């Protein structure tokens, strides 16, 4: 029997004797995968933010929403090493303030990602399905004010959660461990139970319902686009890919995390002595947390398929860093041949 299995059996024995379950460290591979996922997310979102700020000179309402989504994805990266250490040790060694800061930033990150993804869904729906109607979501000034208001709301919400969920000391069979944002914080069981269902409804069920409605209407509208024209085929293909990516993000990244967390808080509240089940739910939650991190890697695809300005700026950026693919060469060759400039030599600036 391995050490981990022995410890978990010991936890079950303690539970049968009336003691609470002890927190246990996860396999180190989870911490390594977490760092790799968020490192890739940092590179992709960092590059996206650079494209938005330095390469796109004219922003529209869609660009503003995409920039804020990239920003909400990037802010979690500095705390990733701390969470990786916590995964491996299951002992929070960084103090109470850093724990509350972690909770606040996590709240801003996940809530912000969900909100801005939902707003992008609504914006796409309004611009494609109701392209002839006037809408506030199409006005750049309104979207700027809306995003500023959302960031203020997210920061206040994060501070509230950080204050409501402080670090606690939990006893194990050997020693005491500091716990931060974990199912094993016995004194916070009721708080986690209430907060979880608030999160589950407002940051999962409601946004998912809105997004499914918007994209189902969008898909129906796209089915009527004339695909005989090159432009119509291009718009349809990009929009369908964007629909698929957004629904994958909700279904793969956010839904499992919310479902597993909900099961965990219910078991902790009503069956607190089911140690083996709680430990497995803890592992499942950390796996779902890593899946949620994949959201940071998938969001840049939304910018690519959802904004022609981003695509153009992306291609210009490739030239700046010295990269040019065969597709781009073919497009430039055809363009120059049509204007009669057949003797131009292509170089990468």
TrEMBL record:
One of its GO terms (cellular component) is plasma membrane. InterPro entries: GPCR_Rhodpsn, GPCR_Rhodpsn_7TM. It is found in: Cell membrane. It comes from the Eukaryota. This is G-protein coupled receptors family 1 profile domain-containing protein. It is a multi-pass membrane protein. Belongs to the G-protein coupled receptor 1 family. The chain crosses the membrane at residues 28-52, 64-89, 101-125, 146-167, 191-215, 242-264, 284-306. Keywords: Cell membrane, G-protein coupled receptor, Membrane, Receptor, Transducer, Transmembrane, Transmembrane helix. Residues 1-22 are annotated as: Disordered. GO terms for molecular function: G protein-coupled receptor activity.
